[in-house]
Amino acid sequence: MNSGEDKYKIMLSGYIDGELSSDEKAELEMHLKTCSDCRKELEVFQELKEVTGAMKYADIPEHVWDNYWRGIYRRLELGIGWILFSIGAIIILACMCYGIFQNFFLNPDEPLILKIGVGTIILGAIFLLVSVTRERIFAYRRDRYKEIKR
Amino acid sequence: MSATRADDNNLIAEIVDGDKTAMRALVEKYKRKAYFLALGMVGNSDEAMDISQEAFIRVFKSAKKFDQKQKFFPWFYSIIANLCKDDLQRREKRDSKAVDLEESDFLLVDEGNPETKLIRKEEAAMIRKALSELSFEDREIIVLKHFRDMSYDEIAKLLNIPKGTVMSRLYYARKKLAKLCHELR
Questions:
Q1: Residue B140: other Cβ atoms inside 10 A
Q2: Do A47 and A69 fall into the same domain?
Q3: Nearest residue, CB atoms, B108 vs list A12, A55, A60
Q4: pTM here?
Q5: pLDDT digits (tens, 9 = 90+) for B62-96
Q6: May I ask the CATH architecture of the domain B106-185?
């Protein structure tokens, strides 16, 4: 297909959507008189438009729309709740780990760099644990196929 | 500046200040549009509901970053489109195949004649199947034109592309859709 034909083919879309200027429309109509390829494609596109024109999305019940805002608000509140929960869980787990490794951290014979390293690993593990747990819970709540055995 | 643009941008400014009534006003104004756009992309009412609500939450969370010189809706639409893409990728990864559009989410405009209705029903099933096989970008342009009935100007503004690109993207998407329908016949 040469670039001229390419131009006319693309114009077919604008033609069926009524988006061409009168000059473009006249130019394309002139071309259609001599090009069976474009005429055939135009027919296919018109049929496609006709079929999709007979389809529309099903609306959802009005009470669902009425509760739409409430759903968003609840999710916003849940988001804040999850942030607070995560911070609390991290603090408690960090305190518990400090209790378990207290002797190590308070031992003056242990090098500071080692204490920093161990402390960072523990904090990292706690962050990961809280984050993965949260993600798992989110994924479980969103999974519509959880009742189906794979 | 158009009234809608000024209204939307005022609402965003109020949302930045933490005004919940402004949040609600924005939701009431765009909830149906957001839901039906998402439905067109992901083809499932539950997922579309989830995505449209999540899109509003992202708007509220990132309202401060919104450039007041821009129009609200194209920005909002880009959030919806990205969420739809993520959702489709997640579902395709899980099911290892293209996500089918659900029959229950489409209705047929009443044609009266039972025979025509039956033909239309079969054609609609074919279109649904073919749409689900298209790439996100092709499906997006088809949905905006065929199912949201937007003009080229509106699509160009929404996707931030020239009007000529709308026409060419539509041409190639229609060509692929027609080819898929032909193969399904």
A1: 23
A2: no
A3: A55
A4: 0.76
A5: 999 988 888 899 999 999 999 999 998 888 777 65
A6: Orthogonal Bundle (1.10)
